[in-house]
Amino acid sequence: MLRLIFRRITQGLLWFAAGSVLLVLVFRVVPPPGTALMVERKVQSWFNGKPIDLQRDWQAWDEIANDLKVAVIAGEDQKFPEHWGFDVGAIKAALAHNERGGSLRGASTLSQQVAKNLFLWSGRSWLRKGLEAWFTGLIEILWPKQRILEVYLNSVEWDDGVFGAEAAARHHFGVSARSLSRQQASLLAAVLPNPRAWSASRPSPYVARRASWIRQQMNQLGGESYLLGINDSRRLPWAD
Q1: Is residue 121 part of a domain?
Q2: How far apart are CA 24 and CA 143, in angstroms?
Q3: pLDDT exceeds 60 at position 8
Q4: Phi and psi dihedrals of 25, rounded to 5?
Q5: Could you give the CA distance from residue 37 to residue 210 in angstroms, rounded to a whole number?
Q6: Which of 7, 28, 111, 133 could connect to 85 by a Cys-Cys bridge, CB 3.0–4.6 Å?
Q7: First CA to last CA distance, the chain
Q8: 137 is in which domain, residue-wise?
Q9: Coil, strand or helix: which one is 220?
Q10: For residue 215, is it within any domain?
């Protein structure tokens, strides 16, 4: 009986691994139709009795303002072109901060956020963290950095039910994602730590200061030229 149970568990894990690899490979070239976070928001609306209209309109890499790409990296993950999914230094700093008490600080990279939003549920359980690490590793191995950022920009939440750069640009500023100004891009990036409580179109003094800091960081990174480092050489043999 124990041997049978062990065999079934092993088979299940192998099927899960193969299926997740295949899914990540598909989403390397096919725009994800939605995200797990979008499903979660919809289900939450059914239970709390507050209808929600999910907004999302996928845009290809060239249809998103370069300023928004740089602003998001500047505000969320400045080591994005260098790491393989995990910023060890930021993780250590967050653990030290959390041990001292006060508000919890996260250290999620853009790759981790893509893995969590696209495939997983919210929460802090060890199971979810383990799955997040698994999908983050797959994404980093099987996708180029440009694809990771492209999926992130099309999947992240920018207000309650507003997902992706195009929906966010139209919701907050009445323009397309391609037409975002540098200031608008920095404001969108500034609210990402708490997009359901902070507003890019009606920024609080704190959000305005954070957006100003992000613009300074954009300058220090080199502006749009910084994106040249995103088009890295990590490609699968058949990708071209």
Answers
A1: yes
A2: 8
A3: yes
A4: -65, -40
A5: 25
A6: 111
A7: 49
A8: 31-229
A9: helix
A10: yes
CB-neighbour burial class of residue 98 (10 A; exposed 0-12, middle 13-18, buried 19+)? middle
What are the tens digits of pLDDT across the range 107-118?
A: 689 999 999 999
Provide the number of structural domains found in the chain. 1
217 class by beta-carbon count within 10 Å (0-12 exposed, 13-18 middle, 19+ buried): middle
For the CA atoms of 24, 21, 74, 95, the dihedral, rounded to the nearest 10 degrees, stands at 140
Residues shown for the chain:
240
Instruction: Please tell me the distance from the alpha carbon of residue 76 to that of residue 107, in angstroms, as a whole number.
Output: 9
Q: Looking at residues 182-210, what average pLDDT do you find?
A: 96
DSSP string, 100-161: T-SS------HHHHHHHHHH--SS--HHHHHHHHHHHHHHHHHS-HHHHHHHHHHHSEEETT
Cα–Cα distances in Å, from 108 out to 74, 86, 197, 220? 14, 7, 19, 22
CATH at residue 116: 1.10.3810.10
DSSP state of 55: B
What is the pTM for the complete model shown? Answer: 0.88
